[in-house]
Write a structure and sequence with these properties.
Elements: E1 4-5, E2 7-15, H1 20-33, E3 38-43, E4 52-60, E5 73-76, H2 82-88, E6 94-98, E7 111-115, H3 117-124, H4 129-145, H5 149-159, H6 164-184, E8 191-192, E9 203-206, H7 207-217, E10 222-225, H8 232-245, E11 256-259, H9 263-275, E12 280-284, H10 286-291, H11 293-302, E13 306-312, H12 329-333, E14 343-345, H13 350-367, E15 370-376, H14 377-381, E16 383-386, E17 401-402, H15 405-410, E18 428-429, H16 455-470, E19 480-482, E20 489-494, H17 501-510, E21 515-520, E22 522-523, H18 527-535, E23 538-543, H19 549-557, H20 560-563, E24 566-570, H21 579-594
Parallel strand pairs: 1-8, 2-5, 5-6, 6-7, 10-11, 10-12, 12-13, 13-15, 14-15, 17-18, 20-21, 20-23, 23-24
Antiparallel strand pairs: 2-4, 3-4, 9-16, 14-22, 19-21
Amino acid sequence: MGYIVNDCVINIATANGTGSQSANLIILQALFEMGVDVSGKNFFPSNISGLPTWYVIRVSEKGYQAPGDQVNFQILMNKATWEKDIQSVKPGTVIIYNSDVKMPVEREDCIVYPVPMTKLAKKIHPKLAKMIANIIYVGILAELLNFDSEKLELAISKQFLGKEKAIQLNVDAANAGREFFKENFTKEDSYTIEKREKDEDAFLVEGNEAVALGAIYGGVNLLAWYPITPSSSVAESIIEWIPKLRLDENGKSTCAVIQAEDEIAAVGMIVGGGWAGGRAMTATSGPGISLMSEFIGLSYFAEIPCVIWDVNRTGPSTGLPTRTQQGDLSMLYEASHGDTQHIVLIPGTVEECFEHGWKAFDIAEQYQTIVFGFSDLDLGMNKWKATNFEYPPEKMNRGKVVISQEQFDKIQNFGRYRDIDGDGIPYRTLPGSGLAPILYRGTGHDEDGVYSEDPEVYNKMMARLRRKIDGSRTKLPQPVFKNNDAKEIGIIYYGSMQNTIQEIDDILEATGIKISQCRVRSLPLSPEVENFVSEHDLTIVLEINRDAQIYGILRKEIPITLVQKLHSVAYSDGLPPKANVYAEKILKKINEVRE
């Protein structure tokens, strides 16, 4: 038999709260330890336990990381979705199911492996059979796909690190699954896994943990937060890493953590922390941003540096709390009432989550303003392969902060809000320094921070704020380009679409269409994005939302003569982007324009 090597999609259907996540992560880790390109997507419900959950593992020799369009292996563990899961798979799919559930699997056009997982688990540990049954399917799949035994045991050891009894129990369960398959089945499918040379510097990490580590290395002094899916693990990871990375010589933490009573209190605390000279941050999602709006305006107008990470979930309202989207972007860019414009950092990889995690503080202090980090559930709460983190320089860039009398004396005509250098950024002093009054106002004020309702003063102040933020366009993380020699069709995209774009590119190229790529990594937009539009006959803006948000920003900001070159492909269903879905929409748009 000719085998399909390292190219398959595994869908595991279980119930939330049954311990299946550990089993699924063991499969992911074992494949990773074998040097195989793999990604995992956790589709879980917005409750504590009981509702259906699915975990989709994509194995791809080409490194594709989208969920995949066709399931090759369906594992059935949940009675609630049993029939639907069976009906959803195509002929030829391998179905592995717990036969102790006593539910029918009537698919003669599929390869079916019934396994008494509960009975096998009870033989190993009767009291923990419900949990151990999940490891039985790990063993079945491992034998079916030829997992390396040592790598599987390594994955189990990493999942239950330091818990020797748990490690041995799960190794025994996985081996029981392998033995059962060997004794009772003959492999009928054409899929297999082969080891590849593993990059020893590579590791798996969630985007939220990468943000947390970046923030710690960036010198965060204050974390104030209120739990909300899918951002909570940013704060939880900071808390977890503080004892390992942020203790002083006396063993005391150098980062204060406060769980606030709500999002409004959390953002108020970080504005206070920024005013006091600390590096302060919070993490939230769309509903939290809505509640924080007034304090966001205060930070912008009073020019107080602080950082907010928005890990986007699907809205509006409560929406789909455990699904993913890029629906908050325009809200972040102009958050709060009145005229505001904010700096937004948009990572597309876990490496950039780390990098932007520390850069956000430098940028906030350089421009004396609130800075948003913009991630989403897919990037934030799933594990991704990382190879290298860019660490910050030894000395923080704190911008125009004056901390000594000598520095203060060199400034001619100091005023808290006076633009001395012409870049829109004033100098600031810190409380406790003894230098000048510490004036920060959220009401109208002149260049010295004195209250003012003078129309000319207000107009001049708002123009300076706009000039200050506009001045960041070339200093923020710049766009990343690929295949820029293809001048007919360009694709602009951002964020977690990075993990699907190569597969989209390959699908389009197979139809004879070659595209060049521009990945936006920050707002306000770099001038290079406008240049990209001008260089192409047709530019499609690709995003994971309904309302084409960055397309709308582009239409507002580029010359009217270029707007006619812009076209939108925006789509959102709450799921991570599937390559075929977006490729089809791009092809349709190209054909519409050409007609």
